[in-house]
């Protein structure tokens, strides 16, 4: 189980650079999809938080909301012991 969890985190981390490229897409739908993917990835997406914070000023209301939600998800997951690879207490 631990090996599978490690593999999933590594694979998710591989998605981060690709998703970050889509954050500047001119199509709001594609941009929001990338934002949501980063939020679901969690801890490996911490590096995306500065870019997501920039999107809090995006002209599109839905994009701003998606960025806010993803930042919250990443930070919440980063605070979870299981996401940091620590055993549950």
Could you explain the architecture of this structure?
- The structure is a single chain.
- The chain has one domain: Leucine-rich Repeat Variant (Alpha Horseshoe), CATH 1.25.10.
- The protein is 65% helix and 0% strand.
- The chain is built from 4 helices and no strands.
- The protein has helices spanning 2-21, 28-41, 49-54, 61-78.
- 22% of the residues are buried.
- Residues 82-89 have low confidence and may be disordered.
Domains (count): 1
- CATH homology superfamily name: Leucine-rich Repeat Variant
CATH architecture tag: Alpha Horseshoe
Instruction: Return the CATH class.
Output: Mainly Alpha
Classify the secondary structure makeup into a structural class: mainly alpha
Any idea what the shape is? globular
Run of helices and strands: HHHH
The share of residues in extended strands comes to under 5%
Query: Number of DSSP strands?
Result: 0
The CATH topology annotation reads as Leucine-rich Repeat Variant
Mean pLDDT: 84
Distance between the termini: 17 Å
Low-confidence stretches: 82-89
Rg (C-alpha, Å): 13 Å
Q: What is the helix tally?
A: 4
Give the helix proportion (percent range): 55-70%
Major sheet characteristics? none
